[in-house]
């Protein structure tokens, strides 16, 4: 493994530094494709590349590369963006890189897709990995189109479909939940018992490491999540345990909370966290993946006060 070089795109994002650390620890030699200079670990190479919305010549970046981990793309930014931009960046640019990788003799291409490629649901029954994909928005459609394009290439590819990722620096809804957990007040969410799939950023990074190994069968997609779903009530309890506090939760009926969220115009936000979206990583687990982080412990670490320097 020490002789295997991996080209990584998207290393400057939320997940990227964790992936870099995991792959370095596993003994891979890394070459990071960056849009702007940034500090990197000792021994890690860097190459500069342009905007994914324009064609890129990947030949030099792929020289001597054994594997590619492609995480760069246009994030899920809501309904305001033109679908053509999602297709250009998340679909066409991915396939341009994959074709160049195939031509360069790359052995494995790991693509960071999204659970949104499988379903746009935020609530409902558990998602089956082999169910017909039904993406609900432009982002999900662009990710699914990239997976379908990879399937047409003569290349060992793996598409990873993560659920909601949490970890240091998390934003949006999980950041809001963390702020709630830190409030020195009882919270009315003890009745939110529906299971929800989450993904610790450490587990996301380790899934990418695993996807590069022969143990992970190629040419298929995988849901990626922490193995056990967790309710909002248990999320808050875990976060408050990291703060050294009791859960402090009051069991208000979920139907009441959902009604209040609807009246406030926040029902979609409410469902994104409280909805019972479950996508278990059955395929990865059957292949032998052993995620290193346990959900409650990871949430407690996320909330724990930091003592830097």
Keywords:
single chain, Rossmann fold, two-stranded parallel sheet, about 15% strand, alpha/beta, 9 strands, 11 helices, 7-stranded parallel beta sheet, about 300 residues
Describe the structure.
It holds the Pfam family Epimerase. There is one protein chain. 37% of the residues lie in helices and 13% in strands. The chain is α/β, with parallel strands linked by helices and 309 residues long. It has a domain at 5-163 and 200-224 and 280-289: Rossmann fold (3-Layer(aba) Sandwich), CATH 3.40.50.720. The strands form two sheets. Strands 3-2-1-4-5-6-9 form a seven-stranded parallel beta sheet, sandwiched between helices. Strand 5 (108-112), helix 4 (138-151) and strand 6 (157-162) form a beta-alpha-beta unit. Helix 3 packs parallel to helix 4 (138-151). The two termini are 35 Å apart. The model has no long low-confidence stretch (mean pLDDT 93).
């Amino acid at each position: 493994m020490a002789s295997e070089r991996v080209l990584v795109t998207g290393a400057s994002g939320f997940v990227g530094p964790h992936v870099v650390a995991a792959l370095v620890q596993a003994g891979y030699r890394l070459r990071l494709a960056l849009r702007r200079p940034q500090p990197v670990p000792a021994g890690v190479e860097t190459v500069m590349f342009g905007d994914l919305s324009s064609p890129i010549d990947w030949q030099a970046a792929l020289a001597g590369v054994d594997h590619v981990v492609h995480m760069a793309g246009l994030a899920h930014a809501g309904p305001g963006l033109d679908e053509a931009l999602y297709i250009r960046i998340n679909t066409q640019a991915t396939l341009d890189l994959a074709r160049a990788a195939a031509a360069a003799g790359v052995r494995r291409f790991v693509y960071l897709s999204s659970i949104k490629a499988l379903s746009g649901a935020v609530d409902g029954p558990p998602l089956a990995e082999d169910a017909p994909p039904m993406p609900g928005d432009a982002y999900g459609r662009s990710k699914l189109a990239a997976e379908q394009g990879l399937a047409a290439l003569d290349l060992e590819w793996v598409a990873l479909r993560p659920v909601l990722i949490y970890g240091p620096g998390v934003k949006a809804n999980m950041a809001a939940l963390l702020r709630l957990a830190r409030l020195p007040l009882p919270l009315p969410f003890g009745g939110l018992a529906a299971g929800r799939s989450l993904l610790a950023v450490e587990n996301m990074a380790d899934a990418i490491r695993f996807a590069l190994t022969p143990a992970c069968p190629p040419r298929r997609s995988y849901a990626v999540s922490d193995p056990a779903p967790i309710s909002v009530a248990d999320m808050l309890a875990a976060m408050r345990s990291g703060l050294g506090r009791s859960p402090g939760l009051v069991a208000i009926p979920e139907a009441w909370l959902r009604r209040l969220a609807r009246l406030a115009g926040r029902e979609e936000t409410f469902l994104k966290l409280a909805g019972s979206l479950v996508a278990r990583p059955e395929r990865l687990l059957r292949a032998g993946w052993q995620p290193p982080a346990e959900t409650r412990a990871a949430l407690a670490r996320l909330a724990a006060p930091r003592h830097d320097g």
